[in-house]
C-alpha cells in the first residue's frame, strides 16, 4: 500500500518505521518542523528526510497536496484534523491511534484524564477518522491495567505507545489482505474532556465550524468530575 503519515515525535517515527518494515511505501509525511523544544528537527520529519520522502509541515495537509495514488492516511500522534476532502482522496480513507478505550476520553488529553479520573484500566483504539473528532468507527482496540504510581509519561511510554504500534500493525496487515474492520462507537458511553491548557484541534480544511459541532463538544460532567477524583 501507499501510505501517507501525519504525526510527530517518537511515536510518529516508530509508525513510520513500522509501515516500511511491513513492506508498504511511505509516499509522504506531515510533521512539525522542529521538536517540542524547538532545538532540532521533529523525529518523524527527520526519518522522512533521511529517506528522501516528501515532507509537509504540520497544519498544511490538504486534499490538493496529498500525493496521487495514496491508499491510506495514518495519524500517528497527530494533532491536525484530517478533513473530509483529504480523507476521500485516499483510496481507503484515514485511520488514527487514540490512547484510550474509545468512546471514553475523546480529546487531546486522554491519558491525563484517565489518570485524573483514577480509571482502573486504560487502553488504545485504532479508529477510522471521520467528521467527529475521535468519533469514527473502531478498527482495533485493546486494554491495559493501571498500576499505583502510574504517570502520564510512564503510561504512554511503557504501555500505550507499544500497544498502539501492535494495533496499527494488525490493522495494516488486515488492510493489505483486503480485510476492513469497522465497529461503530457506542455514543451512549462517549465522553469528551477539555485539553489541559492546549489549543483546540486544528481543522485546516473545514469550511464552516459551528458552535454545535458534535466533535468539539466538551463533556462538562466529565470535566467537573475530574478534579474531585484527582
Automatic annotation (TrEMBL):
One of its GO terms (cellular component) is cytosol. Keywords: Transferase. Signal peptide: none annotated. The keyword Transferase applies. Pfam families: Formyl_trans_N. Residues 210-230 are annotated as: Disordered. GO terms for molecular function: methionyl-tRNA formyltransferase activity. InterPro entries: Formyl_transf_N (IPR002376), Formyl_transf_N_sf (IPR036477), GART_AS (IPR001555). Residues 61-156 form the Formyl transferase N-terminal domain. The keyword Transferase applies. This is Methionyl-tRNA formyltransferase. It comes from Methylobacterium aquaticum.
